[in-house]
Specification:
It is a single chain. This protein has 6 helices and 3 strands, in the order ααααββαβα. The longest helix has 42 residues, at 150-191. A hairpin with a 2-residue loop joins strand 1 and strand 2 (121-122). A 3-stranded antiparallel β-sheet has the order 2-1-3. Helix 2 (24-48) runs antiparallel to helix 3 (54-75), helix 2 (24-48) runs parallel beside helix 4 and helix 4 packs across helix 5 (126-137). With 192 residues, it is mainly alpha-helical.
């Protein structure tokens, strides 16, 4: 957990702390806007594909930052006082956005690294890279796609592992937590 908290401290998500005069609700909205902002940035980078080396590094940073943020919600934040069903529902929406962010981010990385081929020609189309990323993260297979570099194999492995961890660990934890919260609310209502 210490490693998760340390990596989280390097995140730009602390922008919300600059909004100290705002109520807790305002800081929460800034966090939500931060996640949506990054999703939009990754979509733009996927479809525009600017040729600068800084963009793949920025995408890799965001994928690490977002994944760590989601793990911190699971292993750190949910044990704080005040965690409620509203927090659970908000976090589920953010998880869904981040899942799509992972798909888009890895598609962009596959394009930037030039590491996918289909029918013996390099993929340069964003839609094809997005399709390949969806197949990879859902572990459905590659349907004729071919990885042509060691970096591509590394990215494929990391995306698959992140996708499996996302579903197995994150989603199951939230579902179990939601069931527990709803059961305790029903028990409190029944006692009255």
């Amino acid at each position: 957990m210490c490693l998760l908290v340390f990596v989280r401290s390097l995140s730009l998500s602390h922008i919300r702390n600059l909004a100290l005069p705002l109520q807790k609700e305002g800081r929460t909205q800034i966090s939500e806007l931060y996640v949506v902002f990054w999703f939009i940035v990754l979509v733009v980078l996927l479809f525009i594909q600017p040729p600068l080396i800084i963009f793949p590094l920025l995408i890799a940073y965001r994928l690490i930052d977002g994944f760590d943020y989601q793990l911190c919600i699971i292993f750190v934040d949910r044990y704080r006082s005040g965690w409620s069903l509203r927090s659970l529902n908000r976090s589920l929406v953010l998880l869904l956005i981040y899942y799509f962010e992972m798909i888009v981010g890895f598609a962009a990385l596959f394009l930037y690294t030039g590491s996918i081929e289909f029918d013996n020609s390099l993929i340069t189309n964003s839609w094809d890279a997005l399709y390949f990323s969806v197949l990879t993260i859902t572990t459905l297979g590659n349907e004729g796609f071919k990885i042509v570099s060691a970096l591509g194999k590394f990215l494929l492995s990391v995306e698959t592992i992140m996708g499996v961890i996302f579903f197995v660990l994150v989603v199951s934890t939230f579902i179990n937590n939601g069931i527990t919260m709803r059961s305790s609310r029903r028990a409190k209502t029944a006692r009255r």
